[in-house]
């Protein structure tokens, strides 16, 4: 025989009502919090209604707010270059390259105003700029990450240039050769793109034996080894002469 329906105890009814009210209150608080965050982000991220310009432009290395993460203005490359060229560190690097790298190349009559120069692992383009200052107009800078207007993006292991396209290939970064993923391929691509009789100038960590460089650059011969100071560190400046042009490996 089924049991007769009994009314729910008064305590259960009160509990349900309390839970419903708490749920409604929490939903209202959450909605108010979202509206507050949205309104605050809108007012702090944007300069004005309908304006695409952001007012929050942090110069910190890492963003401190979501606005900073999403609203960094792209700096004009030419203005950025002007600021870099005015820095003491940039000027010191230019002077060091001129004295340690360009001078021996000029002395050997390997570098002139009409020389075609490729700068590999060019970074921000200091060597490119230093060559321009030295009167060399035809200079191309490449690196894994582009840095306009001086450096374009290209893989040093697979350079997008014809065989023998340059008179000189320069890599002034001491870590470029030893830090390359495939040093032998890195060297082979440099040799491929320099013309027969052209020059290769390398900044190499002074702890690296010159015989290691000679072993990697199989189509070239070492013409001169000197010392230079780049960014406060003493490095070996190795100048090689190309005996021939490598073909691109398949």
Report on this structure.
The chain has 8 helices and 7 strands. It is of the alpha/beta class and 250 residues long. It has a 7-stranded mixed sheet with strand order 3-2-1-4-5-7-6. Helix 4 (88-107) packs across helix 5. It is elongated. The model is unreliable at 46-60 and 246-250 (pLDDT under 50).
Helix content: 40-55%
The geometry reads as elongated
| Radius of gyration, whole Å | 31 Å
The low-confidence runs, each spanning 5 or more residues with pLDDT under 50, are: 46-60, 246-250
By secondary-structure content and strand pairing, the structural class works out as alpha/beta
Please give the order of strands in the largest beta sheet.
3-2-1-4-5-7-6
Query: Helical stretch count?
Result: 8
| Average pLDDT figure | 84
Give the amount of beta strand, in percent. Answer: 15-25%
Give the biggest beta sheet.
Answer: 7 strands, mixed
Measured between the Cα atoms of the first and last residue, the distance is: 90 Å
Work out the number of β strands.
Answer: 7
Secondary-structure element series = HHHHEHEEEHHEHEE
């Amino acid at each position: 025989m089924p049991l007769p329906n009994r009314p729910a105890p008064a305590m259960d009814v009160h509990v349900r009502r309390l839970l419903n009210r708490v749920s409604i209150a929490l939903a209202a608080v959450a909605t108010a919090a979202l509206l507050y965050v949205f309104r605050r982000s809108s007012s702090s991220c944007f300069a004005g209604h309908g304006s695409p310009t952001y007012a929050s432009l942090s110069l910190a290395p890492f963003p401190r707010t979501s606005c900073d993460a999403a609203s960094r203005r792209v700096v004009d490359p030419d203005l950025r270059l002007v600021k870099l060229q005015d820095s003491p560190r940039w000027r010191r690097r230019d002077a060091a390259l001129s004295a340690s790298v360009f001078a021996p190349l000029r002395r050997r009559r390997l570098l002139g105003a009409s020389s075609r120069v490729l700068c590999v692992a060019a970074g921000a383009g200091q060597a490119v700029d230093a060559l321009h200052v030295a009167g060399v107009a035809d200079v191309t800078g490449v690196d894994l990450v582009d840095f306009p207007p001086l450096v374009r993006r290209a893989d040093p292991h697979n350079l997008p240039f014809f065989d023998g396209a340059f008179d000189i290939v320069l890599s002034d970064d001491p870590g470029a050769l030893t830090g390359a993923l495939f040093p032998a391929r890195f060297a082979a691509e440099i040799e491929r793109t320099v013309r027969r009789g052209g020059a290769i100038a390398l900044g190499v960590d002074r702890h690296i034996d010159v015989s290691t460089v000679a072993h990697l650059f199989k189509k070239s011969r070492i013409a001169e080894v000197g010392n230079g100071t780049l960014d406060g560190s003493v490095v070996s400046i190795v100048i090689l002469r190309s005996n021939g042009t490598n073909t691109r490996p398949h």
